[in-house]
What we know:
Strand content: 15-25%
Largest sheet: 8 strands, mixed
InterPro entries: AB_hydrolase_fold, Hydrolase_4, KH_dom-like_a/b, OsmC/Ohr_fam, OsmC/Ohrsf
Strand order of the largest sheet: 1-2-4-3-5-6-9-10
Helix content: 25-40%
Structural class: alpha/beta
CATH superfamily of the largest domain: Alpha/Beta hydrolase fold, catalytic domain
Number of strands: 15
Protein name: Alpha/beta fold hydrolase
GO molecular function: hydrolase activity
CATH class of the largest domain: Alpha Beta
Keywords: Hydrolase
Number of helices: 11
Distance between the termini: 29 Å
Number of domains: 3
Amino acid sequence: MKSRKLSFTNAEGKALSARLDFPANQDPHNFAIFAHCFTCSKDFSAVRNVSRALASEGFGVLRFDFMGLGDSDGDFADTNFSSNVTDLISAADFLTKEFKAPTLIVGHSLGGAAAIFAGGKIESIQAVATIGAPSNPKHVQKQLGHQLEVIKENGEANVVLAGRDFTFKKQFIDDLETSSCVEAARHLNKALLILHSPQDATVSIKNAEEIYHAAHHPKSFVTLDGSEHLLIDKKNASYVGKIVAGWAARYLPEPEIETINTTHQVAASLDDEDGYTTQLKLGNHYLKADEPASVGGNDYGPTPYELVAAGLSACTAMTIQMYVRRKGWKIDNVEVHTSYSKSYPKDCEACEDDPTAKIDTFTRVIKLTAEGLDEKQKARILQIADKCPVHKTLHSATQIISSLN
Length: 405
């Protein structure tokens, strides 16, 4: 994933700090805006991880700090829920002018409520996704504790949230009182995905139910079972990003596949700025190859040796099924588990004295799910596995003829 630091101006003339996450080795097929949770920032772990997961699925994702938060200009005390909605509209205007109009908006917690409001006002938005969103923005009043009454009586008060001091003014409270996410959802008339955890102790899953019932179709709900409200666990956040990407594909413009023109069976293309993330064309199919993050890759796809092992595994399974069908035998399932390494031959003597004595080794384990096969049949199937075309290619003398074009 590539990420670019930038900023844009909101309706108040304040500079809002942002990052735009790009997919590796391709232009974004759609642009999305991410609205972070209450008093969070664009760099909060859940925001980063959800955005990265979306970027890995081909989205360009703009995540930014609302006015008065993070690295953005402005005084938090002068902001409110409505100003967050306005900031999202400014973000959409920025993307439209500088890149491409956004089609997806994603919001976390209070940002989810803001996403519903803003999604209904941004013409280009075709899909809205919320994560742990309250059905009524004034739900955040609970986080103000006893200071809520102080704010109402004195006009403002300092509140400590997550170890940080924030000044809240009465206008913030008044604005929340007039904002209903349920009403906004009822008039959204755009595809809506609601993600919520039944274990969410901050915003009850009852909120998701209220939003869902208010919204018109198309609408969807996904339970984030086992997740906590802030999605601190990277696996949970990445899961959310991939779910949103898969769901949104049904409602957004189809991505244009980056074509690789070739007369060969397989082609690989790698741009300088993409590290090791390589675009592959295999026949009429496209996928990515990569290296693990531990060696400088993005881990967006299998490694080259994993692809070779995958070819051996697939060919073995196909060859076995072809053989048993021809024989009239019945195998419900074939699993082929393959690993690659370099190891010493069994008959190698004094191997440790010769580092070149190691050979490429594919360890293959075949699991058959079948009834009625005797030991003789199983032994024959194992022999047939060694006759699969990829196995024979790897086991025979091979030449590679290279040229520059």
